[in-house]
Amino acid sequence: MQAPKPSPYVISFLTLRKSIGFMGILLPAVLLLGNFLIGKCWQVQNSISHYYYTIMGDVFVGTLCAVAVFLMAYKGYSRADNIATNLAGCFALLVPFFATNSDPNSLCAVRFLPDAAWRSILHYVSAALFFLTLAYISLFLFTKSEGKKTVRKIVRNRVYVVCGITMIAALVLIFAVKVFPALGLVLAPYHPVFWLEWLALAAFGTSWLVKGKVLLADKA
User: Fold this and answer.
1) What single-letter DSSP state applies at residue 6?
2) What b-and-e string marks burial along 97-108, b requiring 16 or more CB atoms within 10 Å of the CB?
3) Is the pLDDT reported for residue 52 higher than 90?
4) Sequence ranges of the domains in the chain
5) Is the pLDDT of residue 7 over 60?
6) pLDDT score of 9 more than 60
7) How far is CA 150 from the centre of its chain?
8) What is the pTM of this model?
């Protein structure tokens, strides 16, 4: 008997996982390089969210919307998987829809919004919950397995744990930079929030690429 052909209308779990992983890892690089090549502005923004105000703003919004849709379309093995990915998708949508306040020192800004404290707070809360939900998925859902664990599965679980801890650690460091003005002032020239957010996105993307069998897949 021949195996049934996959429906062209169905996106596989692996495709969704790979797409989410690649978008997470590549987004900061695309924003940084695109702002230089297209916008002719090499200044690193204070955070990834501040690229909303640059010529790459539409790419920032579009990518996060795509990640959100893919997360909400993803159906895991249990109700907990579905709730977690749906929540992560909702938080991902709120991040660009409620933009952070603009940076008055940015040389790359091409769009402007009036500052609003409530909008900025909602933005940061949504971003934090987005990464915390992803860390939960990596730490507690991706590490699940049925039956005997293969050697590769054990290694993958270690990667998931490292990725989850990395996302949480990056959030804690970002919080420290925001809460302690003296620390933020000293580190401001190095744009620590941008690099820490990239670290968190890299951990998020790596976790999903491993789950998508791009990395450390079991041997046939």
Assistant:
1) P
2) ebbbbbbeebeb
3) yes
4) 13-211
5) no
6) no
7) 28
8) 0.91
Please answer whether residues 152 and 219 qualify as being in contact, where contact means their C-beta atoms are separated by less than 8 angstroms: yes
Q: Distance between alpha carbon 82 and the CA centroid of its chain, in Å?
A: 18
Give 141-178 as a DSSP string. ITT--SSSPPHHHHHHHHHHHHHHHHHHHHHHHHHHHH
- HEC letters along 20-73: HHHHHHHHHHHHHHHHHHCCCCCCCCCCHHHHHHCCCHHHHHHHHHHHHHHHHH
- Dihedral sign from CA coordinates of 191, 197, 202, 205: negative
CA-CA distances (angstroms) from residue 85 to 56, 95, 147?
A: 26, 16, 24
Q: Rounded to the nearest 5°, which phi and psi values hold at 111?
A: -135, 155
Position 124: which residue type?
Y
Residues 95-149: tens digit of each pLDDT: 999 999 999 999 999 999 999 999 999 999 999 999 999 999 999 999 998 778 8
